[in-house]
Each structure stands twice: as C-alpha cells, then as structure tokens.
Design goal:
- This is Glycosyltransferase involved in cell wall biosynthesis.
- This protein is of the alpha/beta class.
- It has two domains: 158 residues, Glycogen Phosphorylase B (Rossmann fold, 3-Layer(aba) Sandwich), CATH 3.40.50; 167 residues, 3-Layer(aba) Sandwich (Rossmann fold), CATH 3.40.50.
- Helix content is 40%, strand content 15%.
- The chain has 13 helices and twelve strands.
- The strands form two sheets. The protein has a six-stranded parallel sheet with strand order 2-1-3-4-5-6, sandwiched between helices. The chain has a six-stranded parallel sheet with strand order 9-8-7-10-11-12, sandwiched between helices.
- Helix 5 links the parallel strand 5 and strand 6.
C-alpha cells in the first residue's frame, strides 16, 4: 500500500463513533494495510507527543492517513478525516483543555493536509466555513453499516433485555452522555407525556467521557433508565427490541445510531439539525430539537399507531441498506491513491 494509517485513536480506553469508523475502515480497505500507533499504555500527553513528533519520522516518504480528527500538524503529505468541527463551533460543550487543544490543532491540521475527508455534507460545509481549506481539498464520504445491524430474533432481544434488566416495552436512546446530545429536551418531552403507558420505559445507553463539559441535563425523569455503555455485540438486539428510537441531538458529524436503529427495523425520531436530515432522509420522523411538545406528540403517535411503526420501520430498514463500509472504503481508497500519487 502507498500509504500508512495512523491508528493512535484505537488505544483509547473509551471507544466511540470515531474508533468504530477506524476499525470498520481498516477491515474494509483492501489489505494488507500498514498501521503505526503509539504505545497502547501511553497516556494522552505521551500519545499526542508521539503523533506530533515521532510519527512523521517513521513514514519514510509514504502518505499518512490520519482517520480520527487528529494528526501531525506540520505534515503536508497526509490525508486526514475530520468527523466534525464541534470544538470550533461550540467549545462550551467540551472540557476546557480538550476544547483549547482542538481549537488550536484542528485548523492547522486542516490547513497543512493534502486532503481532508469528512463524513457528511454538513461537516464539509462547516469545515469550509470555519477554515481556509479549498473546496476541492475536502471530500464528504458517508459512513457505513456493519452487517451485524439487522433485525434480531426474539430470543436475542429477550436475552439483552434480561442482561440490562429492562422490563416491558421501551423507547431507546444510544449515544455518549454530553451536552450536544440534547437529552434535556427529550426528558422534558417524556415528563410532559401525561398519558404515557405505565409499561413503557425510556432507556438511555451510553457513557460520559473526560472530553465533555457535563451531561447537559439534571436528574432523569421517572420512567427513564441510564444503563451506561452497552457492548457492541448487544446493540443490534437492543435496537431491535425498542418500540422506537429517539435521537434529539443538536449537532452531529454524521449520526450512526439512528442509521443502526433503522438497519434493525426500528422506527426512528431524530432532530432536523446538522447532518441528521441527510443521513435519515425521509425514512424517519424529523423534529425541531428544541420543541419538547413536538417530541411528546411524535412519541405518542408511534406508541399508539402500530401501522405507522411498521411503515416507518420498513422504510428505515430499506434506507439503511444504501450504506455500507465497503462503499466507504472504496471511496476512501480512491482519495488515498490519488493523494499518494501526487
């Protein structure tokens, strides 16, 4: 291969959407793929120092592909994936040091790289608006869906429900616990749902991280359970068993959880903000993320209308079939080969 992949991000103790992107892309790219990484046990400061100082000396003229929002800021011969620019748009959502580092590093990285890949047209628009990157140097390549995300059989759903102590019907949210996920609006909508069925629970799967400035909400309302991070192997059945999936996020680079839920045949309600309309299309209910009453009405509609749930679930399942990691890898490989030949 004429390029080397920077896999420092896979050493993180907490794997989120970025790490899943890197892992799936490595599996889908035609191999063998050469990778370089810092020590697995390295702390954040050591890993960043390795990336900025040591990594460039190990390339021997080869193109570097840095797929996780970070890379050597002075290296020109590099393709970088910038998933979003939330730290530039909304630094208040992040811990102070984290925001300060990315606000310093990210514009310089984008300016120096030969080419920038991003994951949605929304993210591409924000990169072009906030930096001096030329439009022909920034390419949007959508993410894919793993084959494991498909409707699960009832036995698998029941096993996951027992594992996480979920009784009866449930609505589901999946994502990191951070301000931009906008759980406060969903919790207000849930609390305002006066005639909510007694056997319906709101399950929130996800964990907080050191990079975020709090959770963005106070005490969860009655009928809501925060179950923490769920193993990837449990996610297909957890999605499949949900009566509906809710995702009120106000800012996404792409938004994998709604697409994963749709792939599992579960109807989705998402916000109409940032990248989510282009990811979900017309296969989900799109709502104003700041209108709790609209979310209450949509949840009430889906819980009482089985035909609507079936129709929306089928439309979502068909829509999700358009996304694959093979297609993502093909488009990425094309960019890498183009830039390696320069």
């Amino acid at each position: 291969m004429p390029f080397v992949v920077n896999t420092r991000s896979l050493n993180a103790s907490r794997h989120a959407g970025v790490q899943r992107y890197v892992s799936n892309l490595l599996r889908a790219l035609p191999g063998p793929v050469k990778t370089l990484s810092s020590r697995p046990a390295a702390g954040l400061a050591e890993a960043q120092l390795w990336e900025q100082v040591i990594l460039p000396t190990q390339l021997r003229g080869r193109l570097l592909f840095s797929p996780a929002n970070s890379g050597p800021v002075r290296l020109r011969r590099q393709v970088v994936t910038v998933h979003d620019v939330a730290t530039l748009d909304h630094p208040e959502w992040f811990a102070g040091r984290f925001a300060a580092w990315y606000r310093w590093m990210l514009p310089r990285l984008i300016a120096s790289a030969q080419h920038v890949i991003t994951v949605s047209n929304h993210s591409r628009d924000r990169i072009l608006a906030l930096t001096d990157a030329a439009p022909d140097r920034v390419t949007a390549i959508p993410l894919g869906i793993e084959p494991a995300f498909r409707p699960a059989d009832p036995a698998a759903v029941q096993a996951v429900k027992q594992r996480h102590a979920i009784d009866g019907r449930y609505a589901l949210v999946v994502g990191s616990i951070e301000p931009r996920k906008n759980l406060a609006t969903l919790f207000r909508a849930w609390s305002g749902w006066i005639d909510r069925p007694d056997d319906l629970c709101l399950v929130v799967a996800g964990s907080a991280g050191h990079a975020f400035a709090g959770s963005g909400f106070g005490t969860p309302p009655p009928g809501c359970r925060l179950i923490g991070r769920v193993a990837d192997a449990d996610l297909p059945a957890l999605y499949s068993g949900a009566t509906f999936f809710a995702f009120p996020s106000v800012y996404e680079g792409f938004g994998l959880p709604p697409l994963e839920a749709m792939a599992c045949g579960t109807p989705v309600i998402v916000s109409n903000a940032t990248s989510l309309p282009e990811v979900v299309g017309e296969a989900g209910l799109l709502l104003d993320p700041h209108d709790p009453q609209a979310w209450t009405q949509a949840m009430r509609h889906l819980i009482h209308d089985e035909a609507a749930r079936r129709s929306l679930g089928a439309a979502g399942h068909a829509h999700a079939g358009r996304f694959s990691w093979h297609a993502t890898a093909q488009a990425t490989q094309s960019i890498l080969e183009q830039e390696a030949a320069r």
